[in-house]
């Protein structure tokens, strides 16, 4: 990828897409193509077709997706499957039609079976049933992987698929219902501290574990793989360490400076008990993560406080 090559970052306002744009700019790339969802609805086949025909990007980071935490996935499965299938069908197909040199498709660790042996290697894809709370989203992502592989097999397209673990960082969604656990807990602890509340409620038992990777690390891995990985087989992106939700809550509590108690609401779903990725394949290529969870939480908390007025005005 040369600095003047035209690079389309689909989903540039999202958590990973915005991190990819920051990274590309810092590396000196000057021809970055972006469109907001208001400017280009990626679910609309005709609009995507016209966009690719006019702009002819050479590289595509496919980071556009409808995403959300456990509650959003469980509550809106139809939207998760329809929006994601439509977005990826349109972008991947038009990338092929318009001769894109290389496309990187972002999947998710939830594509693996609910009870996969840990840490999860890439070969476990489609070996058992999925976690029910996010089955619709996972099926869409699996379809995206298979589509990239089919276009590689039939048309020779260099379309790769990467599977990041649970991501967080600046630019995350801090909505209390629809977000993922880390941004939700940052907000809950912050508001509890401001209101002098006695406790914060954590969904589920606190026993499930998650591997949390900072979005800047995820973007760095995507950038590295765009330049160093040309295989149709999927590749995991993570850092090889996980924490229980209870441990995460304690770390966020400390960073925010909340002094009250934690209450676990076991009427809320735990989801998958563990989904730690095996990242041997990525490490062997020469890339590993560098932002530890403590540093990442501090950095994300700063991002949240800088946007707090925006979030409370939407309440
Ligand atoms: O991050 P999260 O929503 O998604 O939840 P998943 C992770 C764990 O944190 C679950 C618990 O066990 C939740 O019950 N949790 C505790 C909370 N308190 C909260 C809270 O206030 N908010 C949230 N959201 N969770 C998603 C999938 O699964 O992960 C997606 O639904 C995707 O498809 C994404 O794969 C990466 O890790 O369970």
Brief account:
The chain is an alpha/beta fold and 315 residues long. The chain has helices at 15-26, 45-55, 70-75, 77-97, 135-155, 181-194, 215-228, 245-256, 280-285, 293-306, 308-313; strands at residues 7-10, 32-33, 59-62, 102-106, 159-164, 166-168, 199-203, 209-210, 212-214, 235-237, 243-244, 261-265.
Major sheet: 6 strands, parallel
> Span between N and C termini?
42 Å
**Given the helix and strand composition, which structural class is it?**
alpha/beta
Helical fraction? 40-55%
How do the strands line up in the largest sheet? 2-1-3-4-5-10
Q: What's the name of the CATH homologous superfamily of the domain at 7-171 and 211-241 and 275-292?
A: NAD(P)-binding Rossmann-like Domain
Strand content: 5-15%
Q: Can you give the mean pLDDT?
A: 97
Q: Give the overall form.
A: globular
Highest-level CATH class of the domain at 7-171 and 211-241 and 275-292:
Alpha Beta
Query: Which ligands accompany this protein?
Result: guanosine-5'-diphosphate-beta-L-fucopyranose
Quantity of strands, as a count: 12
Tell me what the structure shows.
This protein has 315 residues and is of the alpha/beta class. It has a domain at 7-171 and 211-241 and 275-292: Rossmann fold (3-Layer(aba) Sandwich), CATH 3.40.50. It is built from eleven helices and twelve strands. The longest helix is centred in the N-terminal third of the chain and has 21 residues, at 77-97. The chain starts with 6 loop residues before the first strand and ends with a helix. The structure holds guanosine-5'-diphosphate-beta-L-fucopyranose. Guanosine-5'-diphosphate-beta-L-fucopyranose binds at residues 69-71, 73, 108, 110, 133-134, 137, 166, 179-181, 184-185, 202-204, 208, 210, 245, 268-271.
């Amino acid at each position: 990828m040369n600095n003047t090559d035209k690079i389309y970052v689909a989903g540039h306002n999202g958590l990973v897409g915005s991190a990819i744009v920051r990274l590309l700019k810092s590396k000196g790339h000057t021809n970055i193509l972006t469109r907001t969802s208001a400017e280009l609805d990626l679910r609309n086949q005709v609009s995507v077709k016209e966009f690719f025909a006019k702009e002819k990007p050479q590289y595509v980071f496919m980071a556009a997706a409808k995403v959300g935490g456990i509650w959003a996935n469980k509550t809106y499965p139809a939207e998760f499957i329809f929006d994601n299938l439509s977005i990826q069908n349109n972008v991947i197909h038009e990338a092929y039609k318009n001769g894109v040199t290389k496309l990187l498709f972002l999947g998710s660790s939830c594509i693996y079976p609910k009870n996969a042996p840990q840490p999860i290697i890439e070969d476990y894809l489609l070996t058992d049933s999925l976690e029910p709370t996010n089955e619709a989203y996972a099926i869409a992502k699996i379809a995206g992987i298979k589509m990239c592989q089919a276009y590689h097999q039939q048309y020779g397209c260099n379309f790769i698929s990467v599977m990041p673990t649970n991501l967080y960082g600046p630019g995350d969604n801090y909505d209390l219902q629809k977000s993922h656990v880390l941004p939700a807990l940052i907000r809950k602890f912050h508001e509890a501290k401001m209101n002098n509340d006695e406790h914060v409620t954590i969904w589920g038992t606190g026993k499930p574990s998650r591997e949390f990777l900072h979005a800047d690390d995820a973007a760095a891995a995507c950038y590295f793989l765009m330049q160093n990985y040309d295989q149709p087989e999927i590749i995991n992106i993570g850092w090889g360490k996980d924490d229980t939700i209870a441990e995460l809550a304690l770390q966020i509590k400390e960073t925010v400076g909340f002094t009250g108690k934690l209450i676990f609401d076991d009427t809320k779903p735990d989801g998958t008990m563990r989904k730690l990725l095996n990242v041997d394949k990525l490490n062997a290529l020469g890339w590993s993560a560098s932002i530890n969870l403590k540093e990442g939480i501090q950095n994300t908390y700063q991002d949240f406080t800088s946007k707090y007025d925006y979030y409370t005005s939407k309440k």
